[in-house]
Amino acid sequence: MKKGLSEICYKFFLNLSNPTRLAVLEQLMNQPLSVNELADTLGQEQSMISHNLKPLLECNFVYTEKQGKQRIYSANKETIGALFKAVENHAEKFCPTGGKCHLKDD
Q1: pTM here?
Q2: What does the pLDDT look like over 73-97, one tens digit per residue?
Q3: Is residue 29 domain-resident?
Q4: Do 60 and 98 contact (CB within 8 A), yes or no?
Q5: What span, in angstroms and rounded, lies between the C-alpha atoms of 51 and 59?
């Protein structure tokens, strides 16, 4: 592993370790949505979705495009698509629980 890659990986996965952010990304993989559409789809407050979009935008996991007064968010499919596919593949091939792994502290 390159020197410093562990720190990059840590920050990368820390950003994705939030269930709301993962749910946002999963929705945005299907189609671009506004923050209000995301909030409605996920059954969460708009402020919670906005709060969780900020770190996703900072890491370019999500892109935004202004359409009139709205901002439309879309997933970085190159990164997130590959990541979701790798996780799905791992769960199918290697997880004895079918992807329902959990930490000992759970």
Answers
A1: 0.85
A2: 999 999 999 999 998 888 888 887 7
A3: yes
A4: no
A5: 14
Question: Which CATH number goes with the domain that contains 50?
Answer: 1.10.10.10
User: How much is the mean pLDDT over the chain?
Assistant: 90
Using an 8 Å Cβ cutoff, are 94 and 86 in contact? no
More confident residue, 2 or 19: 19
Total structural domains in the chain?
A: 1
Give the DSSP letter string of the chain: --TTHHHHHHHHHHHH--HHHHHHHHHHHH--EEHHHHHHHHT--HHHHHHHHHHHHHTTSEEEEEETTEEEEEE-HHHHHHHHHHHHHHHHHH-TTSS----TT-
